[in-house]
Design brief:
- The chain has 368 residues and is an alpha+beta fold.
- Helix content is 32%, strand content 25%.
- It is built from twelve helices and 13 strands.
- It has helices at 20-35, 75-81, 88-101, 121-138, 199-208, 225-230, 237-245, 259-263, 285-294, 298-304, 320-329, 362-367; strands at 63-71, 106-116, 141-149, 159-170, 185-190, 216-217, 220-224, 251-254, 272-277, 309-315, 334-342, 346-351, 354-359.
- Strand 6 (216-217) and strand 7 (220-224) form a beta hairpin.
- The longest helix is centred in the middle third of the chain and has 18 residues, at 121-138.
- It is globular, with a radius of gyration of 22 Å.
- The model is unreliable at 360-368 (pLDDT under 50).
């Protein structure tokens, strides 16, 4: 038999640490943010059990759906520790929509998952405002999400994020690497910073080296070091979508975890090898700082960070000039960084300073 509780107090969900009222207040507060992301096919209204999207209203005839989900990693811990919650949501959207655009897909709608120990609506609303900003930048609708208040699972003030995005591409425009061939030119699009990969190493360096993150960055006295690190991931969707629809891109690689060495091979046929010339661009000052502070080997840099390149395009030689012009018109910093050659599937990065690394064993990395 269970022991009788002599207390006359009545148990409630709120007393256990979960406030349904706070959750309802958050939904009410963020509803206008979601509504501002409305686009053809979605009205972005919140409150139902699910969100609808009308592909016909979005103008598709023979679409393939493409789905992606991702998080922000431990970059979110920097946002928490330094009360910089306003832009971390852009990272969340960027990590998903940039993965969709490499398939040729237009991001259509986005849902977020916000988990915390105790819901602080001021913070949650700032995070969701950033998510809404990311959706507007990429042209997709924020149609819903989930806020999970889980006392005991997270320390006070901590939270975590996940994002889920669905896009569509006409069947004839899908990018799956089938058009990549020897002779294609590789074009790199500049990153906005560390993006959202490698932050466990960044945070370890910050702690071990006792960086004063709120002081001016040693390489840029116009910004604090924390501002350079927290800079949101660049969203490339609107710059690339028109070029994809003109069928002038053969493949795209989003440079995330694994860096150049491990991401470019993901879009290559078995008989193609990517040769990247590291002398064609300057390693950004932030990346140079990280490498110097951690005495990081070049091969480790190439597999951990984007090293200044957030997206790589494979383009037929006859289309390079027009693609470069389109990217310039879209305010992208584009650089020709290498080429595709016949060879074993993989990627090599080298320059006058030596070889960053070479990945030939792609299958074991992703399927071993």
């Amino acid at each position: 038999m269970t022991k009788n509780n002599t207390s006359d107090s009545s148990y409630t969900y709120a007393k256990s640490g979960v406030s349904i009222d706070a959750g309802n207040a958050l939904i009410k507060a963020i509803a206008p943010l979601a509504k501002a992301t409305a686009r053809p096919g979605a009205n972005a209204e919140l409150g139902g059990f699910g969100g609808f999207f009308d592909l016909k209203a979005a103008g598709y005839n023979d679409p393939l759906l493409v789905a992606a989900n991702d998080g922000v990693g431990t970059k979110v811990k920097l946002a928490i520790d330094y009360d910089l919650h306003d832009k971390i949501g852009i990272d969340l959207v960027a990590m998903c929509v940039n993965d969709l655009i490499v398939q040729g897909a237009e991001p259509l709608f986005f849902l977020d998952y916000f988990a915390t120990g105790h819901l602080e609506n001021g913070i949650a609303e700032r995070v969701v405002a950033g998510i809404a900003d990311g959706c507007k930048i990429s042209g997709c609708a924020l149609i819903g999400g989930e806020t999970a208040e889980m006392p005991g699972m997270y320390a006070d003030g901590d939270y975590d994020l996940a994002g889920f995005c669905v896009g569509a591409v006409e069947r004839s425009e899908a990018l799956v690497g089938q058009d990549v061939k020897a002779g294609d030119i590789l074009i790199g699009l500049a990153s906005s910073g560390v993006h959202s990969n490698g932050f466990s190493l960044v945070r370890r360096l910050a702690a071990d080296k006792e960086w004063a993150l709120q002081d001016a960055a040693p390489f840029d006295d116009s910004r604090t070091l924390i501002d350079t690190l927290i800079e949101p991931t660049r969203i490339y969707v609107q710059s690339l979508l028109p070029i994809i629809r003109d069928k002038k891109i053969n493949a795209l690689a989003h440079i995330t975890g694994g860096g150049l060495l491990e991401n470019i091979p993901r879009v290559l046929p078995n008989d193609c090898h990517a040769k990247v010339n590291a002398d064609t661009w300057q390693l950004p000052a932030l990346m140079d700082f990280l490498q110097e502070q951690g005495n990081i080997e070049t091969a480790e840099m190439a597999k951990t960070f984007n090293c200044g390149m957030g997206m790589i395009l494979a383009v037929s030689p006859e289309n390079v000039d027009s693609v470069m012009q389109s990217l310039s018109d879209a305010n992208e910093e584009a650089t020709i960084v290498g080429e595709i050659v016949t060879g074993e599937k993989g990627c090599s990065v080298s320059g006058s300073g030596g070889t960053w690394g070479s990945d030939h064993d792609w299958e074991s990395i992703f399927h071993g």
